[in-house]
Design a protein that fits this description.
Layout: H1 2-11, H2 13-33, H3 40-56, H4 63-80, E1 98-105, E2 110-112, E3 115-125, E4 128-129, E5 133-139, E6 149-157, H5 167-172, E7 176-181, E8 187-190, H6 196-214, H7 219-228, H8 235-243, H9 254-268, H10 274-291, H11 296-314, H12 318-334, H13 338-341, H14 343-365, H15 375-396, H16 404-411, H17 415-431, H18 433-459
Parallel strand pairs: 5-7
Antiparallel strand pairs: 1-3, 1-6, 2-3, 3-4, 3-5, 6-7, 6-8
Amino acid sequence: MLALGWGARFRQPSWQLSFVLIAFLFGVAAHSWIGAPLPAEILLIIGLVVLTVGLILLGRRFAIVFFVLSALLFGLARYAISFPTTGSSSVASFIGGEARIEGTIVNDPMSSGERQEVILDELIVNGNVTENKLITYLQRYPELDYDTRISFRCQLDAPKPFDSFAYDRFLLRVGIVATCFSYDEPMIVSAPSFSLRGTIYTLRSAIQTLLNRALPEPESSISAGLLLGIKTLPDKLSADFRKIGVSHIFAASGSNVAMLLLVLTSAVAYIVRRQKAFWFLLGAVVIYIIMAGAEAAVVRAGIMAVTVLLATHSGRATSPRNLILLAAAVMLATNPRLLRDDVGFQLSMLATTGMAVLSTRLNKTFAFIPKAIGLRQAMATTISATLFTLPIMLLNFNQFSLLSPIANLLILPLVPYAMATSAIAALAAAIHPTFGVFVGGLAWGVERLIIVIASVLAAI
């Protein structure tokens, strides 16, 4: 019966697509952890030959085998070509010595303490044009902007793992091969020109200012983390969140955005028809991506949030499976290093899968919880996400707190309400600062409850 069942699945187009996508993901995973026996060029050639055979046999019973095999080979090849440039043309060749650096800022500089973190591309090192990227920590002032071209001197170092965290691989996933600390004041070579991304970063900075007007610290930092992906939490609070295993919550992630959308869908169903609410919230994701700076992580968060929304909205049994696999395949085709080296991607993907697969069933199980303002949906999505992300939490944290599942179950349901009320508070602050403070009381109450829960559990 089982064999017949799988045979039938091989003949169904939806399952055939699933097998092809799984094969690609498996190829990326295999090269990530094990390696590949052949160079990327050979893998691509063999993959194209196998794909051609599959197309010739299209419509025949075993054609799917050739498509699956070609997808596996393409997954192996895609990871193989993600390795950065090496040799004299790479900035890594200057590691170990002091150098004159000139480069263009390609991130929204993040300030912390006396330093600001800047990622540079289009590098010139000691007068030599080089490839790959560099992350540097400069003096906090003058504050720098995206697309500014700067010059300074610093000692180049190789990123190294620390505390069992593969920092070198973490940076390499975005093409960064060297780090440096500079005590020189950077010289501005050229000011930023007008760009869409620069405008988006300016908008994000303005929203952060509005949050600071509407909310005191540390609540405004929590809002900035949830809505904008800006990490400015105070050290004590950040330590408490890490101790109880919920620090991953306070960042722009697919699971957070998906939870917010599912809860809002349930809540606004009382006001407008669910179909209209669906399209309204789908558009809201695009606005969120822009508001949060359109960083790669934020775009992935939006993709995964839309995936959950589509999967739960469609109601078809095959939709969640193929939508999630397709989202994963697209993101890994763009950057295959995310699978092994980005815990945030792993957590978001598993949480997204959990919400798409389990939340509808758990929603029925929790019939005793009121539907008002999405309470039942919040609990269903929380448990779904927690169950699926628990293995990653166990594997990636040296000390897994026994309180972590409890902390997640208590805090996660509050996250979508914190995000929604924070967004409303920022909008109110844009109208008038006093109005922002008044409306911000809602966000303050939700986030103060989160802080109290974290503090109590961290003290146990």
